[in-house]
């Protein structure tokens, strides 16, 4: 297990009288797959939002690569090398694969054409997109000029994950990446998670699917009622054990 790349202590997030996070600690090691599991309302999504800038915690501290950081916007997370793939994917159906990979990070053409006329380097972005997809081993997207609206659910997920992997050089958060996917497409996404890990990227996987969690995760962070109920490994605990901790029937 690598050193700790991201750490949070005593995170608190409230929404009026509703407590989303109640003093949660979090550790992510470099180059690991960490699964975050828990029942509905356990605080999984709130935790991820606070760690990626979509929400600002009321209290607590966050460290990245050993230094205290304040992540109050999603751009703050991106500047650190943290990317997030939300369940809604946030892809633009009308744009092609390459344009989606560079959405919000478009590259302009060199010289006057880019600086004065603000023309996009479409050819360069498409070449970079092909390179990124090839390095990630994504073979289901042969043509980066195809509009995303023409792709299957699994292919769209691959585009979103590839975008995160291309720019999130250190940490990638994946929120239910296999939800509503078929068996074949789910396996492709799981293979993609393994490739990210092999490339040294730390992956945080939020999932309800226990077999998938035990298939790819190095450690499992368990949330219950806004608190961290425990951190276990697939080797130390069974799926039944994890579910028991999630529901309060057992302690970690």
UniProtKB/TrEMBL annotation:
<dbReference type="GO" id="GO:0005524">
    <property type="term" value="F:ATP binding"/>
</dbReference>
<protein>
    <submittedName>
        <fullName>Mannose ABC transporter ATP-binding protein /fructose ABC transporter ATP-binding protein /ribose ABC transporter ATP-binding protein</fullName>
    </submittedName>
</protein>
<dbReference type="InterPro" id="IPR003439">
    <property type="entry name" value="ABC_transporter-like_ATP-bd"/>
</dbReference>
<dbReference type="InterPro" id="IPR050107">
    <property type="entry name" value="ABC_carbohydrate_import_ATPase"/>
</dbReference>
<dbReference type="Pfam" id="PF00005">
    <property type="entry name" value="ABC_tran"/>
</dbReference>
<dbReference type="InterPro" id="IPR027417">
    <property type="entry name" value="P-loop_NTPase"/>
</dbReference>
<feature type="domain" description="ABC transporter">
    <location>
        <begin position="6"/>
        <end position="250"/>
    </location>
</feature>
<keyword id="KW-0067">ATP-binding</keyword>
<dbReference type="GO" id="GO:0016887">
    <property type="term" value="F:ATP hydrolysis activity"/>
</dbReference>
<dbReference type="InterPro" id="IPR017871">
    <property type="entry name" value="ABC_transporter-like_CS"/>
</dbReference>
<dbReference type="InterPro" id="IPR003593">
    <property type="entry name" value="AAA+_ATPase"/>
</dbReference>
<keyword id="KW-0547">Nucleotide-binding</keyword>
């Amino acid at each position: 297990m690598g050193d700790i790349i991201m750490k949070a202590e005593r995170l608190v997030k409230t929404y009026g009288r509703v407590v989303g996070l109640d003093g949660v600690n979090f550790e992510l090691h470099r180059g690991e797959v960490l699964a975050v599991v828990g029942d509905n309302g356990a605080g999984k999504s709130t935790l991820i939002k606070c760690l990626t800038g979509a929400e600002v915690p009321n209290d607590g501290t966050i460290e990245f690569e050993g230094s205290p950081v304040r992540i109050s916007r999603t751009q703050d997370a991106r500047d650190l090398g943290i990317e997030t793939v939300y369940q809604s994917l946030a892809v633009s159906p009308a744009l092609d694969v390459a344009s989606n990979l560079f959405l919000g990070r478009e590259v302009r053409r060199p010289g006057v054409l880019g600086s004065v006329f603000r023309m996009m380097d479409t050819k360069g972005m498409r070449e970079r997109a092909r390179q990124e997809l090839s390095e990630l081993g994504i073979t289901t997207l042969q043509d980066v000029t195809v509009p995303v609206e023409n792709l299957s659910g699994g292919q769209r997920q691959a585009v979103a994950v590839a975008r995160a992997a291309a720019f999130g050089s250190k940490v990638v958060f994946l929120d239910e990446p296999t939800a509503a996917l078929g068996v074949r497409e789910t396996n492709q996404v799981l293979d993609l998670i393994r490739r990210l890990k092999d490339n040294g990227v730390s992956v945080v996987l939020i999932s309800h699917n226990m077999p998938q969690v035990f298939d790819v995760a190095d450690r499992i962070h368990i949330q219950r009622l806004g608190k961290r109920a425990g951190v276990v490994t697939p080797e130390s605990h069974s799926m039944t054990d994890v579910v028991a901790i999630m529901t309060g029937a057992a302690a970690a």
